[in-house]
TrEMBL record, chain A:
Keyword Transmembrane: yes
A biological process from GO: transmembrane transport
Keyword Transport: yes
Record-linked PROSITE patterns: ABC_TM1
Subcellular location, record wording: Cell membrane
Protein name: Multiple sugar transport system permease protein
Membrane-protein topology: Multi-pass membrane protein
Taxonomic superkingdom: Bacteria
Family affiliation: Belongs to the binding-protein-dependent transport system permease family.
From TrEMBL, chain B:
Organism expressing this protein natively: Salipaludibacillus aurantiacus
Protein name, entry field: Multiple sugar transport system permease protein
Any Gene Ontology CC annotation: plasma membrane
Residue ranges annotated for the ABC transmembrane type-1 domain, each copy included: 71-284
A single GO BP: transmembrane transport
Length: 271, 293
């Protein structure tokens, strides 16, 4: 009896909490389909009185969101190349003995301590020296490698039996063939999680595109959205449509793959 | 392991290591160097115009009221935000742990979603919710018979508003860490407590919370470091205002560097932020060590 009451109490607290947590999403999506006038009326309407797609059309036809979308996809694509580099490095640190390995690995881990806000000024100056400011390469390169990911991948790969690699070598397989045909398939669990998180990270990346891109043709969705908010500061429905365009793809992806992330957390994460 | 060529491991780690040297290690050195110079946009075009100024940037920073403001604000963010994130994510995790499987998964997704959502989009949406005249929050508060709240218009209230938003976003990931830790507490601990006749709160106080100390440590350090770098929320929502009430250290660095192009000055400020982060981490680690002993 007492137990049931407790369950009910916890349940209602979670329901209320969950509702409060989802309000921003609900409000974002509903407002994006309202007319600008309706979005500003007080008291507000909950459900849009007349459904309109005008803001979405406006975003893609007049406000360059198509370009921003493509740029964001390009960054995501290259982030996957970065994941390949991280994976290669993880394998190198896990399965090879070489001189200076410890020192290099510690240096790699030490870079985790350096936040982007600290390196943004010097990285900008370096990119400027290389002539890479206001280029796609300049946006992509600084965020390509993540030491924490190398660390997680390495942790996983140390559990792969050495015999597998040895016997492949005896059979005469080349090193990169071993990597692509044996190591990568065996590392699927950790790589799946990494791929999802890399996608989300690249999709959401803001700081480097903001600093490096001067040209609107190079803006990503997040930089474009910040610009939109600055230039159309009172067009709330339009802003909500822009935010929806940014959020929904990740949300849909996440609903399909959330099991891997949450479970990946239990196997590769911290206990 | 036997591999024929000594070069092979370097082929694997080479690309990552090179990029890390280029964009993580080298920048720290560059930062150290330029923080002792007066490099700006002119100096960037013509290196002959750059002059060594010794500690002038640092001295100027210590006298810059805006920089003081940004440190003060950042400390407010940290001292309110970090405990709030820990309390909220731990409570959610404890309640979730109490639920049956189906509901458990549903709520876990619900509370996690904000943390994978784009921060700019979030800031834009919350900016609308917080709007003084047409925002949803003030409508709700009005209909409860209360006065309008100046969410983003008052220097102190604006800090609180940004904290609420960042806590909302921060719960998800930390909740997952707590859930993983909760599920690794051995059942036998609780069974033993049952035999001794312990009640629910005693079990929470003497078994659950102590067993979570490592998770709490991890959450504290990562959240602390995250809050010290607080940037996107004030950048998008308030631009550091009103009256510099939400200016954070990271935003100060960004504005000095990329709006005023005072690269040397901004680099000096970024080194001070870096010291803050390192000190915070070290204090946490020593604190945790002394607790273990």
């Amino acid at each position: 009896m007492k137990n049931r009451f407790e369950k009910l109490l916890v349940m209602s607290v979670l329901l209320i909490g969950g509702f409060i947590v989802s309000i921003p999403f609900i409000w974002m999506i509903l407002s994006s389909f309202k007319s600008e006038r309706e979005a500003r009326t007080m008291p507000p309407t909950f459900w849009p009185q007349e459904f309109t797609f005008e803001h979405y059309i406006n975003l893609f036809q007049n406000l360059n969101f198509g370009t921003y979308f493509t740029n964001t996809l390009i960054i995501v694509l290259f982030a996957m190349l970065g994941l390949l580099f991280n994976t290669m490095a993880g394998y190198g640190f896990a399965k090879f003995q070489f001189k200076g390995k410890e020192a290099v690995f510690i240096a790699v881990l030490a870079t985790m301590m350096i936040p982007a806000q600290v390196s943004m000024i010097p990285v900008y100056l370096l990119l400027n020296q290389m002539g890479l400011t206001n280029t796609m390469a300049g946006i992509i390169l600084p965020g390509l490698i993540a030491a924490f990911n190398i660390f997680l991948i390495r942790q996983f790969m140390t559990t792969i039996p050495n015999d597998l690699i040895e016997s492949a070598r005896i059979d005469g397989a080349k090193e990169f063939r071993i990597f692509f045909q044996i190591i990568i398939p065996l590392s699927k669990p950790v790589l799946a999680v990494q791929a999802i998180l890399t996608f989300v990270g690249a999709w959401n990346s803001f700081l480097w595109p903001l600093i490096v891109a001067n040209d609107q043709a190079l803006y990503t969705l997040s930089v474009g959205l910040a610009l939109l908010q600055g230039q159309h500061s009172s067009s709330f429905a339009l802003q909500m449509a822009g935010a929806t365009v940014m959020v929904i793809p990740v949300l849909i992806l996440f609903i399909f793959v959330q099991r891997y992330i949450v479970e990946g957390f239990n196997t590769t994460g911290i206990k | 392991m036997n591999h024929k060529n000594a070069l092979t491991p370097w082929l694997f780690i080479g690309p990552a290591v090179l990029l890390l040297i280029m964009f993580s290690l080298l920048p720290i050195l560059v930062s150290l160097l330029i923080s002792f110079t007066d490099i700006d946009l002119i100096g960037l075009g013509n290196w002959d115009m750059v002059e060594f100024v010794a500690f002038e940037n640092f001295i100027a920073l210590f006298q810059d009221p805006l920089f003081h403001r940004s440190i003060f604000n950042t400390l407010v963010y940290v001292s309110i935000g970090v405990p709030l994130v820990i309390i909220c994510s731990l409570s959610v995790a404890l309640m979730l742990n109490y639920m049956s499987n189906k509901l458990f998964s549903f709520f876990r997704v619900l509370f996690y979603v904000p943390s994978i959502t784009n921060i700019v989009a979030i800031a834009v949406v919350w900016g609308f919710l917080y709007n003084m005249d047409v925002g949803l929050f003030n409508f709700i508060i009005n209909s409860l018979g209360l006065q309008n709240v100046p969410w983003l218009e008052h220097p102190f209230m604006a800090k609180i508003s940004l904290i609420i938003l960042a806590v909302w976003k921060g719960i998800g990931i930390n909740m997952l860490i707590y859930l993983a830790a909760l599920q690794s507490i051995p059942r036998s601990f609780y069974e033993a407590a049952d035999i001794d006749g312990a009640n629910k709160f005693q079990k929470l106080r003497y078994i659950t919370i102590p067993s979570l100390s490592y998770a709490t440590f991890f959450v504290t350090v990562t959240t602390l470091i995250g809050w010290l770098q607080f940037f996107e929320e004030p950048f998008v929502m308030t631009g550091g205002g009103p009256l510099d009430g939400t200016m954070s250290m990271a935003l100060f660095i960004y504005e000095r560097g990329f709006q005023y192009n005072e690269f040397g000055y901004a680099a000096a400020a970024s080194l001070i932020l870096f010291i803050f982060i390192i000190v915070a981490t070290l204090i946490q680690f020593t604190f945790n060590k002394s607790k273990e002993n």
